[in-house]
Amino acid sequence: MESTFFGINTVTFITNLVIAGGIFGFMFTMGAVMSWSERKQSAQLQDRIGANRAGIPLPGGKSLKVWGFINNIADAIKCLVKEDFKPRAYDLFMYNLAIFFAFIPAVISVAVIPFAGEVHLAELFQSWYLKWIPGLPEYFATNLPNYVFRVQVANLNVGLLFVFAVGSISVFGAILAGWSSNNKFSMMGALRACSQMISYEVAMGLALLGIIFIYQTVDVWSLVQGQRELAFGWLPKWGIVLQPFAFFLFIASAVAENKRMPFDLPEAESEIISGYYTEYSAFKMLMFMFAEFIEICFVAIMITTLFFGGYSVPYLMADGFHWPWGAFTAVSHGNVVLLELGSFLTKVFFFCFLLQQARWSLPRFRYDQLMRLGWKYLLPLALLNLVVTVIIVALGGF
What we know:
The protein has helices at residues 8-45, 70-81, 92-109, 121-124, 136-143, 159-167, 170-180, 184-215, 220-227, 239-242, 244-257, 269-272, 282-307, 333-359, 367-394, and strands at 56-57, 63-64, 116-120, 148-151, 230-231, 235-236, 316-317, 320-322, 328-330. It has 398 residues and is mainly alpha-helical.
């Protein structure tokens, strides 16, 4: 195909740019939404209103508060204009570098997650919500009739290993922040964070090995495709169906990795002030807190992708619904894309809500209890689940 303004090279570049911008923009937006949800959801559980003071003045003495979301904007402005206090004795380079190690991994890891299935561009532009654009539907139908792309930033055949590799980097953010601050409370929080994250990564990795053995791949795209198949002719082969025990092991380990209640020992305010980022202020402190909210969203994305079919909708294929009783309901390609994207986002929002609910419902563990749970309970149970899964797979099960 010759290179024109809408040639194959240009279309590929624009498509990749839109997908990457949309997915990464979604993560940053969800960080802000989680910050708002942290306040409003806790308020509902504690029978109070929650954040509702900040607002944009309107004529007539009223103000636009958007259910308390304007408080997030006020907090961001406050952190941007506050004095950036720095401790007297610290390593400047490591002190600043820690922020990136804490923030970047959760954002980068989402690159291998598919948010929807394959999109046929020519068919997509025939949909009711894009067909009105002058000239483009006809152009793509004529010049690029077979152009297909995936709603995924990077299609790596080792995608799940990439997630683990990048995710493990976040431990450097905690230890560098605690050590470079030259604060005893910060160092204590850093030591807690490192031991906790390393301990629970073992159980989490073993829990996911069962998923890998069943679907015979570490490619995230292939994992989702495997969950679109049916068992007994009617039951979707989602990870939660084939590996229910691994699901509970994973969600417990993931919450511990995220350092959220009831595993928030590295940031226990009543014990060590704010843990490893005690000596951070202004925008830098905001970045650490924002990274934590983004990690909540990423944990929800991983649960959705590995255990609840990702973007898949039960019985929905590329051309419509193929019902177990033999009936067929045709669905246009554009609507299939919308259903897949809506399915993925609905599952993610639900698990974000569930993780926030746990945050305000469970008491904090003691540190010895935290370590005992990880090494004496979750690890042996994860090994047992893996052994049983391997035996069943070897005998031809699943």
